[in-house]
Amino acid sequence: MGTNLNRIVVAGGTGLVGRKLVRALLDHGFRVQVLTRNPQTLHVPAGASACGWEELPGLLEGAGAVINLAGEGIAEGRWTAARKTAIRRSRLEATARLVSAMQACTQPPKALVNASAIGYYIPRAEAPVEEGSAPGAGFLAEVCQAWEQEAQKATALGVRVALIRIGVVLAREGGALPKMALPVRWFQGCKLGTGKQGLSWIHLDDLVAMLLEAARNSAWEGPFNGTAPQPLDNETFTRLLARELHRPLLPVPGFLTTFATKLLLGEMAEALLLQGAMVRPARAQALGFQFRFPTAEAALKDLL
Asked: Which of 28, 68, 184, 245 could form a disulfide with 189 if both were Cys (CB 3.0 to 4.6 A apart)?
């Protein structure tokens, strides 16, 4: 059986990004197989098929690419010890299982496009962060590093590996934006902490286009930042959100929002909301990738 460049296997195709990606792949004429734990009950768009993990390695044999988005949601709830174990295990085990299945293939997939996150980096707001910037420490950074190392093992099999370090995904139907907009809509919006922490975001449509490009373009190899070219600090983004929703912002002191956020969310608050880096997509731009929504103003106008 030869390589079928037109066939793409998507792991984690049921989440916010995965659902949109599957539809985009079908629109571009790809044959899409969605890897899932429950193929009998999963409803996939017409033209795609749902396949179980037990169908590995045969499913990967000769595939054009595998796009791996599998993993428990990072922002779904407080980071208890059990939750942290689930976040780490779900990412590492799914990726290891895919690479192991590739080892059993006569013709492994041409490419593995593996999700990662900008939590990989040191959260510093004072200087722009690009793909060569140093990794951080702490739970999220360590998960990202281990996750990427697992994916990189596929390179030994001749598989091209692209790692997409995804920022805050802005979408109408889920993810961070509805949660961020809610207090602003209810006249309760304010900056979080100092407001100076970086908020590196990307419109869902641009992220999907990036994953698609990484799957089919052989120049996409190694790490890429899945973020828009104009990251903002938390306060500037919140002001733009308030302006778009025609709402005022409350002048709440930073120490109060820091205290309240930590009280509600614990360790997760520090890692996801009160710290952040200004992450730029240097490598994607160098390869000529065009963003439909390069500015937060354009993205918010489209989504709100």
From this structure: 184
Q: Which CATH class is domain 4-167+201-227+280-292?
A: alpha beta
Give the separation between CA 143 and CA 84, rounded to whole angstroms: 9
pLDDT tens digit sequence for 137-195: 999 999 999 999 999 999 999 999 999 999 999 999 888 888 878 877 877 877 787 88
Please count the other Cβ atoms lying within 10 Å of the Cβ belonging to residue 115. 27
Residue 57: count other Cβ atoms within 10 Å of its Cβ. Answer: 16
Q: How many other C-beta atoms can be found within 10 angstroms of the C-beta atom of residue 81?
A: 7
Which phi-psi region, left, alpha or beta, contains residue 283 (left: φ > 0; alpha: ψ -120 to 50)? Answer: alpha
Each residue's pLDDT tens digit, 252-266: 766 676 666 665 666
Angle 240-194-200 (CA atoms, 0-180°, nearest 5)? 50
Q: Which residues contact 270 (CB under 8 A, 6 or more apart)?
A: 262
C-alpha 10/C-alpha 26 separation (Å) is 12
Distance CA 199, CA 125 (A): 9
Contact 242, 249 (CB under 8 A): yes
Give the H/E segment covering residue 35: strand 31-36
Pairwise CA distance, residues 21 & 6, whole Å:
15
Q: Considering only CA atoms, which of 215, 216, 219 is closest in space to residue 114?
A: 215
The one-letter amino acid at 270: E
Read off the tokens for 193. 């902490």
Secondary structure (3-state) at 92: helix
Predicted confidence (pLDDT) per residue in 18-66, tens digit? 999 999 999 999 999 999 988 888 888 888 999 999 999 999 999 999 9
Global model pTM greater than 0.85: yes
Handedness of CA 280, 285, 289, 294 (dihedral sign): positive
